[in-house]
Amino acid sequence: MPNKIMSINAGSSSLKFQLFEMPEEKLLVKGLFERLGGNDEAIFGYSTDSAKESTQLSISSHKEAVDFLLKFLIDKNILETLEELKGVGHRVAHGGEEFPKSCVIGIQEEQGIDKLCQLAPLHNPVNLVGIRAFKKALPDTPQVAVFDTSFHQTMPAKNYVYPIPYTYYEEEGIRKYGFHGTSHQFVAQEATKELGEKLTDLKIVSCHLGNGASICAIKNGQSFDTSMGFTPLAGLMMGTRCGDIDPSILTYLMKNKKMDADALEAMMNQQSGFLGVSGASNDSRDILKRASEGDTQSQLALDIFTNRVKTTIGAYAAEMGGIDVLIFTAGIGENAEKVREMCCSELDFLGIKLDAERNKSGDLFIQQDGKPVYVMVIPTNEELKIAQDTFELAK
Ligand code: ADP
């Protein structure tokens, strides 16, 4: 009987899915439900090799979406029986220190994910909704959790403890956790496959540059440092997030502008980054276009963004005592040649030099011949990584 593995990413009003045949890693169908839980009708869209459709549905909850999805898979002959489904893998935002690896979700694990809702109040609760809906519909099928934070649990304490009173770490769990771990691990594995090298032999800097953006230093095959922190707000500048700023700016604004916690959170998460600096857009395509037309604030936004990427690459090369491979991934990293060019300019002293033509065409390898650092453009695929982990654990 074929091994089919479902990969699930549940958001507050959405549920994305991809179904793979394993171990061939063949994508059979992918799709998403949107507008779940609202007053409007939900939207369901899917695509396979031969079909693509989008329809409105009168369902309102994640549970109903799961029931609809399972029936849809049978009706469309994508599955003959539900027993073909050997496991369901769920993306879970926060695994804290409790979950250094992906795991099968039993009662204890479910309680653990629930407890971590306080560290990820926007994400873990909806991830749990997805898990519970599938558990109810498929009680005998292994459910697996794949955490955004797990990969970074190998960081040394000097890289995850903040220099504030230690009791905040001990009592509140305030430390750097890091995110995008599934993506960083996936592209690092893909790079080593391409290079025919062992992951443990390489010093890798992986740049996940999307609407959310983070960089990871991977040493001996493990995460050694990463730019996101206690929350996904830290580190690089992003689409609407500020990344690292002087913390005193917050107390200044509280005192002088009478801004409260909610206003500050909104300012840092939704009104900053590309959007805040340019005053125009959170989308890098708009920023690139406006900058090329001479808009100075968009140019400044681009300069800040790429400078932060560059200084982080430099910092991580210093931390690891060198760099063998630099990877660009996610929406901006995979598509924006200009951004890659700006991030790598002046890094020749580290052995990083792009070939203009290869960078333009977005080749797998974009470094100049003879340069010691491989610079690679690798599409991320978090859903496949979730399916790989789920397949291994469900065995
Ligand atoms: P997320 O998953 O964090 O929402 P993505 O990885 O989808 O983000 O990346 C979104 C970003 O990728 C946007 O800023 C978008 O402008 C950028 N992007 C996508 N395609 C291109 C392109 N062809 N050129 C430049 N930027 C692009």
TrEMBL record:
Its EC number is 2.7.2.1. ATP binds at residues 16, 208-212, 283-285, 331-335. InterPro entries: Ac/propionate_kinase, Aliphatic_acid_kin_short-chain, Aliphatic_acid_kinase_CS, ATPase_NBD. Substrate binds at residue 91. Gene3D superfamilies: 3.30.420.40. Keywords: ATP-binding, Cytoplasm, Kinase, Magnesium, Metal-binding, Nucleotide-binding, Transferase. It is found in: Cytoplasm. The record marks 180, 241 as: Transition state stabilizer. Its main location: cytoplasm. Mg(2+) binds at residues 9, 382. Pathway: Metabolic intermediate biosynthesis; acetyl-CoA biosynthesis; acetyl-CoA from acetate: step 1/2. The keyword Magnesium applies. Its cofactor is Mg(2+); Mn(2+). Mg(2+). Can also accept Mn(2+). PROSITE patterns: ACETATE_KINASE_1, ACETATE_KINASE_2. It catalyses: acetate + ATP = acetyl phosphate + ADP. Pfam families: Acetate_kinase. One of its GO terms (molecular function) is kinase activity. Belongs to the acetokinase family. Catalyzes the formation of acetyl phosphate from acetate and ATP. Can also catalyze the reverse reaction. Homodimer. This is Acetate kinase. It comes from Candidatus Enterococcus moelleringii.
